[in-house]
Amino acid sequence: EEDTRELTKLLILTDLTQTRQQQEREKEQLLEKSSVDQLTGLYNKQYLRDKYGAQSDATQTEKALLFIDVDDFKQINDNYGHLLGDEVLRDLAACIKENVRVTNDAIRFGGDEFVIVLEHTTAEDAFLVAERIRACANTLTFSAGEQAFHITLSIGLIVGNAPLNELIEKADRAMYSSKNRGKNKTTRFVEENTDGAYHMRLS
Fold first, then answer.
1. Separation of alpha carbons 187 and 196, rounded Å
2. Selected residue with higher pLDDT from 47 and 7
3. Which of 68, 73, 98, 192 could bond to 114 as cystine, CB 3.0-4.6 Å?
4. Which listed residue (37, 69, 105, 112) is catalytic?
């Protein structure tokens, strides 16, 4: 009878452990689902906020940030439809995954905008990553009936240890400079303290 009670306790404990493990797995799957963009498989904006938004100024580490935008994406949707637009975004996401280390974060920021956070990366190395992604995107071919088209990217780059929102804002400005200078290029945002005040230099 004693053995039976011990066996019953063991079975209950085993069942509780398995239930707890199942709950943990389901929790992890739910968390992953809520932080991943379903179309591209990249992280989403919520993940970006959760990971970097809570960092205080004291805990900010230097990081490179790329802000990527598909040139003339609205025209692609208008001319060829949203399904083909989705294909463009999926294939571009594949280019991004191929050229970004697993330890870094690639995020679909919204629509046709992507943000990549590169930890422990110099400006020169971040520029090379941006150019590899841009070159990969240039090789993609999309077909709509008898028509075929390619895409180009405008990219903004900044390196710094400012809060994430500030880095994104400045990388976004650099990206728009790429568009204004003919599109299909990477522009770096640099701040120069030449006379006691900071000035933006786009290179």
1. 24
2. 47
3. 68
4. 112
